[in-house]
Write a structure and sequence with these properties.
The longest helix has 77 residues. This protein folds into two domains: 78 residues; 94 residues, 2-Layer Sandwich (Alpha-Beta Plaits), CATH 3.30.70.60. The protein contains three helices and four strands. It is an alpha+beta fold. Strands 1-2-4-3 form a four-stranded antiparallel β-sheet, with helices on one face. 58% of the residues lie in helices and 27% in strands. It starts with a helix and ends with a strand.
């Protein structure tokens, strides 16, 4: 009976240990599968949210399209075409006369033509002389308040000779 008991004990323990090992392996395989499936579901939800956001952004942009078209027309009116480069110097002179300033403009190098959605550019140098406290309002008018040409100034050299201010400015003129 002693031998039969030991045999049955070893068989019972082996069945229990084997069952625990099989359960552990099954659980390990199942948990890996569940983790992979959970990652896939999360990725699908993220993609769905991104798609929803893109559709919502598109709807907002589509609703704003008429207003954007109005701004596009306004920008086109602000920005001259390349032939406007010819009249830029006289436009600057007219503005200078309003501020009792004498100004000259000279282009530097060849203009860079516009391309799809990117305006063309022409670099210029402007010199101006005028009474004290006239140059700054004149430059401010040209760069931010005047309608007619879109331009930006990159550098300024100011000098003040007794009752007259002088400026040499480097800038860029934009055109369509």
């Amino acid at each position: 009976m002693n031998a039969n008991f030991k045999k049955r004990l070893w068989i019972g323990v082996s069945v229990i240990v084997g069952s625990v090992i099989l359960a552990a392996v099954g659980f390990w395989l199942l948990s890996g599968s569940i983790t992979a499936e959970a990652d896939r579901v999360v990725a699908q939800k993220v993609a769905a949210q991104e798609t929803t956001n893109a559709v919502a952004n598109f709807a907002v942009l589509k609703a704003a399209a008429p207003q954007a078209a109005q701004y596009g027309v306004a920008i086109q009116k602000l920005m001259s075409d390349q032939s406007g480069l010819i009249t830029f110097s006289s436009w600057v002179n007219q503005a200078a006369n309003k501020y009792n300033v004498t100004a000259t403009v000279a282009y530097q190098g060849d203009p860079v033509p516009s391309s799809a959605g990117v305006p063309g550019t022409a670099n210029f140098t402007m010199t101006a002389q005028g009474p004290e406290n006239s140059i700054t309002p004149f430059v401010n008018y040209l760069s931010s308040q005047a309608a007619g040409f879109m331009l930006s100034f990159g550098s300024f050299d100011f000098t003040n000779d007794q009752d007259q201010e002088n400026i040499i400015a480097q800038g860029t003129l934009y055109f369509r």
